[in-house]
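Cont'd.
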Amino acid sequence: EVQLLESGGGLEQPGGSLRLSCAASGFTFTSFAMSWVRQAPGKGLEWVSGISGSGAGTYFADSVKGRFTISRDNSKNTLYLQMSSLRADDTAVYYCAKDRSVVGPDYFDYWGQGTLVTVSS
Amino acid sequence: DIQMTQSPSSLSASVGDRVTITCQASQHINNYLNWYQQKAGKAPKLLIHDASNLEIGVPSRFSGSRSGTDFTFTISSLQPEDIATYYCQQYDNVPLTFGGGTKVEI
């Protein structure tokens, strides 16, 4: 059974940093690209960042480029999102999502339950 | 960036009704269009990929089609458990983009 378990969310001040983690199980982690998708309170879905199965390819939304870094540790089956220079409009539930392909990003057949990030002073 | 214009933003229908949601891409995206269902407080669920391919395990009352840059998602006979918000998503180009969502109510 595929499971994706996010952690690391919480309250952070504007300008601060947070690192989100996503522990994956139930599939061959290195064989699939992964992405982060966020959803601001009461709003729609926004793709944030993606990474290929090997980690060689990384992709970002313009809204987070230069502030967020995506990485993965294939030995630990874990995906990360390092967020810095946080702004109030980064407040959202952040979902970890498994891509259908190894290269990605394309579409997401499994999602985690999400972790809430709140940026406020 | 490719803009996905989804309509309507909300709709109300009765059990058994046929429900149609559309997404228009701002440029040609081939068939690289997916549909998700999100129930309140839950993560999204993939229903259809590549415009018309039903995900395994998804009921056959859900379907998708494409005409040029216009994509249609249909529920042939609305069921109470279909109450949710539905999103389209393109992956022809990075950044991936979602439509604004359609909230379906009974």
